[in-house]
Amino acid sequence: NQSQVAQLEQKFVENHALDFRTLDLPVNAVATALKNFFSALAEPVIPYALYNDLIAATGAEEHKLGAIRRVLDRLPAENRQVLRYLIGHMRHVADNAHLTAMDLRNLAKCWWPTLLRPHFDSFESMAGLTPRLEEFAQLLLQNSDLLLSGSVVEQRSGDRK
After folding, report:
1. What does the alpha-carbon distance between residue 50 and residue 136 come to, in Å, rounded to a whole number?
2. How many alpha carbons fall within 13 Å on the CB side of residue 103?
3. Is 5 exposed, middle or buried (0-12, 13-18, 19+ CB in 10 A)?
4. Which tens digits make up the pLDDT trace of 26-36?
5. Locate the Rho-GAP domain: which residues (predicted)?
6. How far apart are CA 79 and CA 70, in angstroms?
7. Residue 114, CB-side half-sphere exposure with 13 Å CA sphere
8. Alpha carbon of 97 to those of 53, 101, 153: distances in Å?
9. Chain center to CA of 21
10. Looking at the predicted structure, is the pLDDT value of residue 156 above 80?
11. Would you call 119 helix, strand, or coil by DSSP?
12. Which of 19, 68, 113, 148 is the most exposed place for a label (fewest CB within 10 A)?
């Protein structure tokens, strides 16, 4: 409920080291507060500048994961680190879907709008792109080790050592 989310957000503002386990709040209030935090950022975790290239990469017929990886390699280091941590948490949630009722598909549906925050020109463009954006989020969740494991540049320079 919104009052619980507002209460949690206020407590977090007061104390960034807040131990959520000490609060008597339902897990969905914590999840909503987390999504609110990411939604309030000036730019999404996956920056607007990468959006069109990500759409194209997700629509690739061949070597889709490689194409997505090349786009994600352009993430700022801080965004990559935050995304790795967030996706790792989501995978933990999905691994416990028997308790959370949130598998990778559900998480992808819930989180792609927050991770990408696309701007649609029309209902038609929203309807046309939503399946591709959901697919991207699901591929990211399923293949995060490949898609977010250092950048290709880091790997290449590591190969030369």
Report:
1. 13
2. 2
3. buried
4. 888 889 999 99
5. 1-148
6. 15
7. 18
8. 32, 5, 35
9. 23
10. no
11. coil
12. 19
Yes or no: say if 68 and 139 are a contact pair by the CB < 8 Å rule: yes
Distance, CA of 111 to CA of 61 (rounded, Å): 24
Any idea where the domains of the chain sit in the sequence?
Answer: 1-40, 42-160
Amino acid in the structure at residue 157: S
pLDDT, tens only, 128-138? 888 889 999 99
Q: Helix crossing, 104-116 with 77-95: angle to 10°?
A: 160
Length of the chain: 161
- Which helix H or strand E contains 56, and what residues bound it? helix 51-58
Which segments of the chain are extended strands (E)? none
How would residue 157 be classed by pLDDT, with cut points 50, 70 and 90? very low
The CB-based long-range contact list for 32-38 (8 Å cut-off, 24+ gap) reads 32/5, 33/5, 33/8, 33/9, 35/110, 35/111, 35/114, 36/5, 36/9, 37/9, 38/86, 38/114, 38/115
> How far is C-alpha 19 from the chain's CA centre?
23
pTM, 2 dp: 0.82
Homologous superfamily of 42-160 = Rho GTPase activation protein (1.10.555.10)
**The tokens of 119 are what?**
């701007």
